[in-house]
């Protein structure tokens, strides 16, 4: 569906915005400079701070080169933590600027936040496992700040939204694309990573709808992470929430509501209009690619990271499909099919019960009034309605049933 649009995947993976000028110097030089510069900044982000030591644009940009390098240092000391504290504080200039922030950042928050996001990619670069707890805490701190930024900022321009989306795609790809064994940082962060990505993506749809290249890129990159269960779980969660909103205005108030948890329903911004919901729903369904592929380890293991690890291990060609992480695919496939089953039930007017409740009860359509006439919001491909010839002797109930089934079939074809 995006064949005529270019992918941004290579742009994302080759971006050098996370590198500092200090990376051109010997390691000892960069480390010494970062340790010396960052400590005075740490006190500037405390709640009692009233003024920042950085006054000019030149001072801020020079300091950011040091902070960028500081984020790449080992986690033994407190330098990396201080760098994260400073950057997550400055990001809030787009939410609630304070006097303790550098004035250049307050005056041009979008420009600086775009650079900060690129620098913060360094936090998510894999580290030695012995520091996994500290690494996870720092990643969670950044993700929480990004959530707050997307939720509360009212002054983010399109370029900042786009940098934010690409940042999230890149950190997800860095941590989730590679095949892993055991429970490491990627497994512990997968749910949070996917939840933040999808929530921010939905907020972007409401405030600054992503262009087709971004949808194409997200679909391509998400295919690299499908061996992690939270990817399908979070996708299904959002798809159900979007479907619940969609049915309200496409099928009318008399149609049985598709109930989802309040926490999931709140993911869909209230300011989303009907057309935006329909467009987002249609594109989001395709973001997972073909869910049937999840039943085939050969397809899932053809991603670049799988092949790269296979080549590094000097194994036989058929051994890549035997990687331990692929043993989860049957359960992942089941969850994907269950999620799609819930969507089908929703269009049929059947609410999926909880595990401890009775089986679903078919809806009595004889008591339902026809849906109201609405403007067609089916995105983005046009389609022709199938004309149904009805015998005059046909009962009224058959007419209603035929009309509803035709509408359901038409919408499911789009899925």
List the helices and strands and how they pair.
Blueprint: H1 9-14, H2 27-42, H3 57-70, H4 79-91, H5 103-107, H6 109-120, H7 132-152, H8 158-176, H9 185-207, H10 212-222, H11 229-250, H12 262-265, H13 274-286, H14 297-300, H15 304-312, H16 329-347, H17 396-414
Helix pairs in contact: 2-3, 2-4, 4-6, 4-7, 6-8, 7-9, 8-9, 8-10, 9-11, 11-13, 11-16
Key traits:
single chain, 415 residues, mainly alpha, 2 domains, 0% strand, disordered C terminus
How would you summarize this macromolecular structure in one to three sentences?
By secondary structure, the protein is mainly alpha-helical.
* Backbone structural class: mainly alpha
Task: Report the end-to-end length measured between terminal Cα atoms.
Answer: 12 Å
Mean pLDDT: 85
Please indicate the percent range of residues in DSSP E strands (runs of 2 or more). under 5%
Tell me, briefly, the overall form.
globular
Instruction: Classify the helix fraction into a percent range.
Output: 55-70%
- Rg, nearest Å: 25 Å
As residue ranges, the low-confidence spans are 353-369, 373-405, 411-415
How many helical elements?
17
Number of β-strand runs: 0
What characterizes the major β-sheet?
none
| Helix and strand element order | HHHHHHHHHHHHHHHHH
Q: Compute the number of structural domains.
A: 2
